[in-house]
Amino acid sequence: MNVSTVEKPATAGAVPPGTASAARDTPQTAPDAPRAGTRRRTLPVSGKRPGPVAVTLLFSLGWVFMYADRNILSPVMSVIQDQWGLNKGQLGLMSTVFFITYALMQIPTGYLADRIGRVKVVVAGYVLFGIGTILSGFAPGFMVFLLMRAFTGIGEGTFYSPVYGISSSYISDKWRGVSAALINSGMAVGISLGFIGSGYFTFTLGLPWHVSFLIFGAATLVVAFLINYYLAPIDTEHKAQAAAAAEAGTDAPVAPASNNALFTRNHILTYVLIFCSLYGFFSMLTWLPTYLQQARGVAPAQTGIIASLVPWASIPGAILLSMWARRLRNTRPLIVVLSVLGGLCQILVPMTGNYSLMIAGLVVYGLVGKLALDPILIAFLAENTPRSMYSTAYGYFNFAGMLSSIFAPYITGALADATGALEAGFYLSAVLLLIGAVAFCFTKPAGVTPAPAAAPALQPAN
């Protein structure tokens, strides 16, 4: 992956880098007009600059516990239902309140991250949701549990837009989609870890369901420390770039990019598609273990393993499809085809009475569904967005997607209560995804002419 590199000025007697005097004595040449053989130093005076591999791995690890913490609930919903005497609508509400606060954080988080520091926002939120997960494990009843899940959603809501704002600026255009796929692979691992870990602790070891929340919450706080320790220099570097541009007089404000740039036809139809895609994904994610237990007669200890087929299949699917997509000049047909295939799989899983076909439908959905589609949509959105507005754009993007997650768990549960079966919710998910695929056909070829930025984001090396 190509990322920006910074070279020492090629002058005799240059002060060694990494010292305060080196930062002071570096000639104040404009970054876009360096002297021959030199490039303006903009790295922080202390701290090690993380490479693209570190950025990708740590953000992928971040997704592992983001998804593990939210999915430890699904395997034990039947236990909680019996313990607290809840109906399916109330079970769906436990996920819905989480996603309400998660979705509401998306847009303000994008603005905040672009202004005060993306890594700072990520770390603060990570600490909050680790604490929220632990407190969920101590909840004595349904109402307190709902409050703790809402608190956890606030913390998790700070992750998405800063992470893809950093990676889209830090990784070269050529590798942006592949990097997003590798980062997204943490979602798949986290889903499986949450499903299998929660099922193992509760059904195999016979421990109370609360234990999973305590263990995963504590691990989340460790990951928050690692992200802060290794990636904090990114925020310092962005500040140094802005200061260098100001000193050199290169930040004479051209009008800041307008929010209208985030509501073009391509943006709006991308937001529509991610809404439709995530509706089905979160409906399945929330209810698949319960569906397998109650409708298919699968033993509770095995539901986590079967449900994990979706995320595990998505890892090779997302990486291979993203590598293919980066060779395409136009990814729009690929996006439409993947959306249609995902919708058909959501019909096949509840419709077929054949167990093997159901498993095949889950695997294919993993290969082409939400987790495989996301990296291609992220790259498509970046191609249509000014670089200085990446975090804000991804805030709107994820807000649109997460709106569906507010409704999907509750509506699926309410439909199950009304019809006596969970299948109706899966069919609704499929119809929405097919509608999103048709809508996306009306996008235009990607492309944006970004307004000149005051402090350019990290530029790919030559």
Task: Briefly characterize the structure.
The chain has 462 residues and is mainly alpha-helical.
Strand and helix map with partners:
Layout: H1 20-25, H2 52-71, H3 77-84, H4 88-104, H5 106-116, H6 118-137, H7 142-156, H8 160-170, H9 176-204, H10 210-247, H11 265-294, H12 300-307, H13 309-325, H14 332-351, H15 355-368, H16 370-383, H17 390-419, H18 423-440
Describe the protein.
By secondary structure, the protein is mainly alpha-helical. The chain has one domain (52-242, 261-440): Growth Hormone, Chain: A (Up-down Bundle), CATH 1.20.1250.20. The chain is 71% helix and 0% strand. It has 18 helices and no strands. It has helices at 20-25, 52-71, 77-84, 88-104, 106-116, 118-137, 142-156, 160-170, 176-204, 210-247, 265-294, 300-307, 309-325, 332-351, 355-368, 370-383, 390-419, 423-440. α5 (106-116) packs across α6 (118-137) and α6 runs antiparallel to α7. It is globular and about 65 Å long. The two termini are 12 Å apart. The model is unreliable at 1-46, 250-255 and 449-462 (pLDDT under 50).
Find the count of extended strands (DSSP E, 2+ residues): 0
Alpha-carbon Rg, integer: 23 Å
CATH superfamily: MFS general substrate transporter like domains
Number of folding domains? 1
Would you list the SSEs in sequence order as H and E?
A: HHHHHHHHHHHHHHHHHH
CATH topology heading: Growth Hormone, Chain: A
CATH class: Mainly Alpha
Q: CA-to-CA gap between the ends?
A: 12 Å
Task: Give me the CATH architecture, please.
Answer: Up-down Bundle
Q: Percent helix among the residues?
A: over 70%
Residue windows where pLDDT falls under 50 for at least 5 positions: 1-46, 250-255, 449-462
Structural class: mainly alpha
Q: How many DSSP H or I helices?
A: 18
- The proportion of residues in beta strands is under 5%
Based on the structure, what is the oligomeric state of the protein chains? single chain
Integer average pLDDT:
81
Assign an overall shape. globular
- Biggest β-sheet strands, sense, barrel: none
